[in-house]
Amino acid sequence: MPSLPKPVRRPWQPTPQKREYQQHAARSPEYGTARWQKARVAQLARQPCCAACTAVGRTTPATVADHIQPVRLGGDFWDPANHQSLCRPCHQRKSASERAQ
Ligand SMILES: [Zn+2]
Questions:
Q1: What are the residue ranges spanned by the domains of the chain?
Q2: Distance 34 CA to ligand 1 centre (A)
């Protein structure tokens, strides 16, 4: 059976995760703060499973603290009521659909 080509590592380029984070950080400098690190950890502790997966009956551990209403569209950055936990694929899907708006 043929094997898939190995992903090419280019250490001089940021990983996709890093690039995603940098795009967020470029829009909102708050992402780089200790306060956000704390808010993110608190959100993931409060809601350890992905909210979007839970809504369709799946149980997936969340790794991303997301703003329900995007900050760019007027959502409150610091309001815990505007935070939800998502897994990476769900977060990417949500971000992509927001970009398409
Ligand atoms: Zn998910």
A1: 20-99
A2: 25
